[in-house]
Amino acid sequence: MAQLDVETSVNKYPIHILENIRHQFNQYVSKDYSAIFIVTDERVANLYLEDVKESLASHPKVFHTVIPAGEQSKSIEAYYQLQTQAIEYGLDRQSLIIALGGGVVGDLAGFVAATFMRGIDYIQAPTTILAHDSSVGGKVAINHALGKNLIGNFYPPVAVIYDIQTLQSLPAKEIRSGYAEIVKEALIADKELFEDVMQEKLNQVTNASLRDHIFRGIKIKTHFVQEDEKEKGIRAFLNFGHTLGHALESEYGYGTLTHGEAVAIGMLFAMDVSNAVFSNCLPVETLRKWLNLNSYPLVLDEINSEKLLSRMKSDKKVSNNHVQMVLLKEIGNPVLVELNDEDIQKHLENFINKMMKN
Amino acid sequence: MAQLDVETSVNKYPIHILENIRHQFNQYVSKDYSAIFIVTDERVANLYLEDVKESLASHPKVFHTVIPAGEQSKSIEAYYQLQTQAIEYGLDRQSLIIALGGGVVGDLAGFVAATFMRGIDYIQAPTTILAHDSSVGGKVAINHALGKNLIGNFYPPVAVIYDIQTLQSLPAKEIRSGYAEIVKEALIADKELFEDVMQEKLNQVTNASLRDHIFRGIKIKTHFVQEDEKEKGIRAFLNFGHTLGHALESEYGYGTLTHGEAVAIGMLFAMDVSNAVFSNCLPVETLRKWLNLNSYPLVLDEINSEKLLSRMKSDKKVSNNHVQMVLLKEIGNPVLVELNDEDIQKHLENFINKMMKN
């Protein structure tokens, strides 16, 4: 239960999930690379950079760079600066980039790898729970001032090397953020995983449970990615909870809510809408209680349904100016539904009212 | 003899080569695109933009932008600005970009298409002879301050629409530049084409001959691209003449020599080296005479072999710090040869001496 494989149109790559694997990069990195360039952020550098460099000590050319932690590093300026460093360090087409960190590092360093000399190899080495999701599937991107992830590629890594041990250093907010994506994966594909996670108290989760949940989450992610690499069909189901989630993130400003916290609220909304559209009874209250118990921020302060709708409509997934939402017919049975503005706004208003009361 | 097809790992696209096809874009562009964004440069806009827009008049959303002509438009700033425009015009994943122009427009607009929302469709509509080469094969890129085409993707267009009629408006310098790439294609793959072109006086070339040469050139290009899309093997043969060519372009500053003029000198050098390495007798003098007759600038003023060598070594194709050159065992039989610095420099000095005497 330590390895999964992903098959894409251009390669097949392994996902290694192991405690303390950061000390064994040398076992997974070919000696043939002309140079290795590790990209990481301040927080992760302090904790794990030396371990990784040490494990690669036998390689003659290992460079690194440390970027500021946080979403602002996914800028065109940071992107260009990494390209400059890659050139100055003498990287060529036979070189490797290692993205050591969370989603920001993975997205940015992955997009640099995708476009440096028209594409070189890279390894995703996630150090957050949230990045179990973003590190698999080859979506890499930077932000545009007008929207998140608007500039990027589909470009799979050559491997994902995931040291579960590094998750021990995560603050509670980051654990919440990561678990929201696990809950999402469960809701669209695995009722049992959903029920298991609903039994967990996040500040008491054991390493064994964490590894188990992440493994099952990645397995689901892998399935959707393999079936639909370029997000022309079912991969879109992975956006469950993200329509409102992204809108909340940008409305409140990135950093107020974590990505997962925003998605958590988005999932409650998507379940509410699903119940209304399909007249079914998804366990919204079970999820709401679990989120509350685990200190997810669930209050929508001073939020305006019209503004949210307009945010939702600027998403990449909009088609012909209509919002497309992933809804659930039941747990494990997602569908993509196009909703008109009026209906969305009505649902939003109901939802905001309900949230304010809780 | 108006259409060729290219099969890639991700799609299959047609190359339409026809006189006045710019008036018939509507026949080749699906009505289903949510929006169409034409990118062109000042020179081409004045001549052909209205024709293309007119032919798309029945489409409800057609936008355009005009960039400055010339290599400086392949900058990160111009790239980001096009992304901004694409967002502001409301392009989404179902939209189309048309690159109407020469290699600069094709490379830049193609890279925007490759990375806008992780990749949307685009059409290459070349308007120069040189772009018969760059528009086929999916290489898109912008320049980095430290080197040409260092940031880019392999990203095939959905079609190439090539209006031979637009080549009538090209200045002599551009005709020379384009024909150098046709000669290159001939030398690596088609002796007959080489002999045919050697019979032509470029300022008297007929439309029929031009179409014939371009068609045969693209056919060769297509062959190498299909066999080796990501340039891991034989596609590198298309760089015949480019090792010294690129070095000359950057040494003299882009714009002094056109790309093709630099490649022409590079081919003479590569043939000289081939003759030395393989003790054979390629028709260097035939080519030199033809180049002279057609006013290619063949004098290497104030050039220094050490500087050139260092330029050659900063190329993307360098492997383990050794220059790799495409040489010819005979016409149509290219090989990739790694040369050490000493040998390269010796060849360069001989070549510079010989060029100065002519």
UniProtKB/TrEMBL annotation, chains A, B:
Its cofactor is Zn(2+); NAD(+); Co(2+). One of its GO terms (molecular function) is metal ion binding. InterPro entries: Dehydroquinate_synthase, DHQ_synth_AroB, DHQ_synth_fam, DHQS/DOIS_N, DHQS_C. Its EC number is 4.2.3.4. It catalyses: 7-phospho-2-dehydro-3-deoxy-D-arabino-heptonate = 3-dehydroquinate + phosphate. Keywords: Amino-acid biosynthesis, Aromatic amino acid biosynthesis, Cobalt, Cytoplasm, Lyase, Metal-binding, NAD, Nucleotide-binding, Zinc. One of its GO terms (cellular component) is cytoplasm. Binds 1 divalent metal cation per subunit. Can use either Co(2+) or Zn(2+). Residues 178-318 form the 3-dehydroquinate synthase C-terminal domain. Residues 65-176 form the 3-dehydroquinate synthase N-terminal domain. Zn(2+) binds at E181, H242, H259. It is found in: Cytoplasm. Pathway: Metabolic intermediate biosynthesis; chorismate biosynthesis; chorismate from D-erythrose 4-phosphate and phosphoenolpyruvate: step 2/7. Its main location: cytoplasm. NAD(+) binds at G103, V104, V105, G106, D107, T127, T128, K139, K148. GO terms for biological process: amino acid biosynthetic process; aromatic amino acid family biosynthetic process; chorismate biosynthetic process. CDD domains: DHQS (cd08195). Catalyzes the conversion of 3-deoxy-D-arabino-heptulosonate 7-phosphate (DAHP) to dehydroquinate (DHQ). Belongs to the sugar phosphate cyclases superfamily. Dehydroquinate synthase family. This is 3-dehydroquinate synthase. It comes from Virgibacillus necropolis. The lineage of its organism: Bacteria, Bacillati, Bacillota, Bacilli, Bacillales.
